């Protein structure tokens, strides 16, 4: 619970965790391509994997799902979190205490002396934590962490702006997963409909005409789903949320660009060339799967 005293009185925000345990990786609704790539990245013995997005976008849930996948008796996993929200048997988890100067940076230094295989660091919020994380990933540890950035390519430029050594950073980076949570249609009352040509063209243009062909959809049988409203969803037409993702991979070409401190647009263009599906594209693919509608996508991703 977080409280803030306002002129009208105390304002409180509650964060309710449905379960204190980790969600399985295959329940995150990742696209088949992203799911396979994340499994591949998590199998690496060392390197840096980041999950980014705004507050409440499910970053911790995703990272714990990855940890749950690699949590085997022969892998020593340490986590430094603020606060520890999700617990898993087999993990050694530590709560940050800034009052006694026990921060992410000091926890990282302590962890390295304990020789873990995998380190989860709650957030790379400053240069010190980020540089220790990169250092750890270059000395034989798999390092997972989060950042508050809007997209996967922006994460690279943000960390370079923090003052990270581009040589070490480019060597360490395995990938960056950016995500948002989007409301889903109520399963009890959502209604199928045939989209008109204007709506269909708008979705295809938003996805990208050339890239849309790769989805191999039968244009004649496309059906979308719309909200209705029932007792189950409180008359809203929506119930639950799903993740939309974009996964940037630390390919050789991209690592060379980080090394040269390339511009954001250049990094984004290379990530797309390497096969990154943007969050918007992932969201539109999920609209065609009947999970949600375009209005909900626009609430979390810019036009």
Describe this protein's structure.
Helix content is 37%, strand content 22%. The chain has helices spanning 32-42, 59-70, 104-113, 127-138, 152-161, 166-172, 197-207, 209-212, 252-259, 264-273, 279-288, 294-300, and strands at 2-6, 9-13, 47-52, 77-81, 91-95, 118-121, 142-147, 173-185, 191-193, 224-226, 238-249. The longest helix is centred in the N-terminal third of the chain and has 12 residues, at 59-70. The protein is globular and about 60 Å long. The two termini are 33 Å apart.
**Amount of beta strand:** 15-25%
Helix amount, in percent? Answer: 25-40%
Strand segment tally: 11
* Mean pLDDT over all positions: 93
Write the H/E string, N to C. Answer: EEHEHEEHEHEHHEEHHEEHHHH
Could you state the oligomeric state of the chains shown? single chain
Give the neighbour order of strands across the main sheet.
Answer: 5-4-6-7-3-8-11
Number of helices: 12
What is the C-alpha radius of gyration, as a whole number of Å?
A: 21 Å
Largest sheet: 7 strands, mixed
Described by the principal axes of the CA atoms, the overall outline is globular
Structural class: alpha/beta
What is the distance, rounded to the nearest whole angstrom, between the alpha carbons of the first and last residues?
33 Å
Low-confidence stretches: none
Write the layout of secondary structure elements.
Elements: E1 2-6, E2 9-13, H1 32-42, E3 47-52, H2 59-70, E4 77-81, E5 91-95, H3 104-113, E6 118-121, H4 127-138, E7 142-147, H5 152-161, H6 166-172, E8 173-185, E9 191-193, H7 197-207, H8 209-212, E10 224-226, E11 238-249, H9 252-259, H10 264-273, H11 279-288, H12 294-300
Parallel strand pairs: 3-7, 3-8, 4-5, 4-6, 6-7
Antiparallel strand pairs: 1-2, 8-11, 9-10
